[in-house]
Structure formats: structure tokens, C-alpha cells
Please model this.
Amino acid sequence: MKLLRNRKIIITWIMAVLLVTFGASSVFAAKAAPKQKNIILATTTSTQDTGLLDTLIPIFEKQTGYFVKTIAVGSGQAMAMGQKGEADVLLVHSPDAEKKFVEEGYGFNRQLVMHNDFIIVGPASDPAKIKGFKSALETMKTIAKTESLFLSRGDKSGTDVKEKALWKKAGINLMGQRWFQETGLGMGQTLGVASEKKGYTLTDRGTYLALKKHLGLDILVEGDAELLNIYHVIEVSSTKWPKVNAPGAKAFADFMVSKKTQEIIKTFGVDKYGSPLFFPDAGKKVEDLGK
Amino acid sequence: MELIIQGIIKAFELLVTFDPEVLGITWLSLKISGTATLISLFIGVSIGTAVALNNFFGKKIVISIINTGMGLPPVVVGLFVTIFIWRNGPFGFLEILYTPTAIIVAQAIIATPIVMGISLASIQNLSPNLRLQILSLGASRLQMVWVLIKEAKLPLLAAVMAGFGGVISEVGASIMVGGNIRGYSRVLTTATVMETGKGNFDIAIALSIILLLLAFLVNYLLTLIQQRQHPR
Model:
């Protein structure tokens, strides 16, 4: 083979590649914190899109010296990461799936952090005439009956799971319905789609308030106890996955429910949006929320 | 329209005030995509040249594979790199998931076939007589390869531009393997996606403009090098 005669060249190239690669990685390694200083936080898009984590994480890092890698995905994907041991700690809002997650031994020490609520938003013209409805289930039924366009996340996020549960409770079969469309996108983008297509959607209040000024969407239905949106922090099991940074996860969970953090959550967003985006709930019971 | 103007003003504002976060993101993008392009250059040019200069069984199939790789979708690369390097994956011990290094790896994988395909074509495009001539002048094989590479400089620099252009604008892999972590692995494209999600369209437009400017500057520099000896 002639190729073999090129061995010298090839070896030189390989050496050069290795040099560049390791040179580059050492540049970045110098910047990264030591091994077990890294915490992978898998969380929902709403905590990032509202800017809450941008406020809290730097405080936590400063206090503890940990380095938090925030991966903002839907709650469904966040828990999938936890199940594979690819995250250390979760901040999610999909209570039924969370309970299952903990029961199956993937996580433990599930603690209530905060809540806000889901709202049903839509165009001001309100084709299904749902404005002011008190019941979320009635709203879903009416939207289905009038076949008004509804945009769903369709990504197994906390919001998506909540929405699907509402449709199920309302007894509506979504299979093949043309008025029901799934975006497969995050909350912010789905709100954008709903606004452009003049459709209805279910959203958490925080993301809606943060994006309101760009949207042609009004709050149409709110206040039903069905619509509570509850966030928990869960530590991923390090017995199942030895590589999980257990002390880091515990430190973050403790931080989220600490008095000081809860104070920050209480006032977060008030200056910008006129009302808080989240209500701190550490130490409370889920049953007492929204009362 | 108003929004676009707002975005342009915002871009200008972020640039002239030397906004540290935006500068950091821009610098990181340049560093990551530059390193990835450099790696792809070494691997791509060497394998591309080797394939072009040698005749072997199945050469057409190899070339087809390389040419297909030129259109490798970044999300596919992102997915596979993630699976390989996550904690419990085969390369989990490297602990590079959600780091800039991971983005470099993914982007190098995306850029390599692009560089390889173009260098392969450009070396093949040289007259075969040239090789004979160089060898007859008493050059060693290594020297011949070097002369050929120099001869194909123009298309090879085009390969660099195509490779760099491919990775600096790529978002699917960067967000998957980098995680878009603030001040650490957030690059221009992933920041744009996030700001769009947040509804900060002016910042998103501003970041896009900075990205375009950066791509233009790099390509301008490369073009200067490429055209240096070819004024006409």
C-alpha cells in the first residue's frame, strides 16, 4: 500500500492534532472548577426564561464555591437525565411524574420550593368565549367544542403534562383533532406561536409575565385550584449512580429552601413586572397551597 | 421593522460599551469554532490528500461517504457526542459533557468532512502531470505532498472558510453538548436561541448581527491571505 509510505506524514499530523486538542482543553481546564465542584442542575425552561436562576445561581456559587451547570430543558427531559444519573439535582414542576421518580428510587429528599399558577391565555378576540371562566375543565371542554385553535407544548414538560391531564379530566380525545397543534418547543416559543396564530395555550404565569410585552395574548382563565404550578427540588440518587455529586446536590437543595433564597424568590420580578413571578413555599404542605 | 432597527441599535450599544458578557460570549465562540476548524483542518487535509493521491479498492465509496459527511446534521452529531461522553457513557471518564471542550469536539466532527471533501476535490483537481514533474525533479514523496498542498492553496482556504462557517453558525450540537451555561459554554448561537425564547428579540437580533460581523471578519482575513498572490 502506498498509504503506508505516508505513515510519517500521518504520524506528524496526528501528533499535531493531539497537541492542538490538548492545548485547547488545557486552556479551558484552567478555567473550570475542580472535579467535584461541578453540579449539573436539570431544570425546566420556565426557571431560566423568567431569569430567576440568573439571579439565584451566582449567589449560590459565591456562597458555596460550587459551579452550577444549568441545563434548561422540560421537566420530562430533566427527570430523564436524572434517571440516567446525568444530573445531580432537579428543579422541576411535574408533581405526579416526580412522585414516580422518587418512588422508583432515582431521587430522594423531594422538597417543595415555590409555586405560581398556570393560566389559559389567548387572543383578545376570544373566539371560544372563555374569558372569565372559573373552571379550567369547563374551559378545555368549550375550546374543544368550538374547535378553537389550541397550541400545546407537546414536549412532556411540566406544563405539557399538566395540560394533557386537564384534557383527560375533561374527557376530550385529542387524536387527529385539527384544532389541536403541538409545537414541541419551550414555553416562550410556544407563546410566540400562539400569539402569531391567534390560538389558545396553557402557560405558567411567570413565563407569560416575562414575555407579555411581545405577545398579543390576554389572560382569559385563572384562579382555578386545578391550575396550581408547583416546583420541587429533588436530589438524584447517588446509590443508583455513584458519579452523582451528592454533597453538591444537597447543598443546592438546601440553598433553594433556605430562608434567604425564599426571600429573594418572594420579591423576584416585582420591580420589573409589578407582581411576583413565584411564591416561596419552603416548609409548607402542598395541600395548603393557593389557600 | 421597528424591531430590527431596535436590534441594530442594541447591537451597536453592546459593542461600543464593550458589554463584558457579550464580549465574553463572542470571544468564546471564536475560540471554540477556531479551535474546531483548526483540528478539522489537520485531519481533513491530511486524510483528504491521502485519499486523493492513493488508488485503492473502494475509493469511490470512501469519497461518497466523505461527501455525505459534508452535510452531517449538527443535531445528529450533538446527539451522538452526548451519548458517548455523558457520565455513564463510554467516554464518561473524560468528564467533558457541558464544557467548551465538548463543543470543540462536536464542531470538529462537523467541520472535518467539509474540509476533507473540499481538500480531496481540490487535490484531485490538480493535473496528474504535476505530480510526475515534481517527483522527476527529485523531490521526496513528503516534499511532493507539500508542494501539492501549496499548489491547491486557494481551494484549501475555501475549505477552511466553509468549515469555519459551518461550525460558527451551528446551534444544534452546541446547545446539546455545551448546555448553554452562562459565562462558561454559552456561545453566540445558543445565546440567540435563549434570548429568543425569553422574548428579548432586540438582544437576539443584536447577537445575530455580532455573529454575522464575526463571520465576515474571519472570512475577510482568510480571503486576504487567499488572494495575496493573486492580485488580478
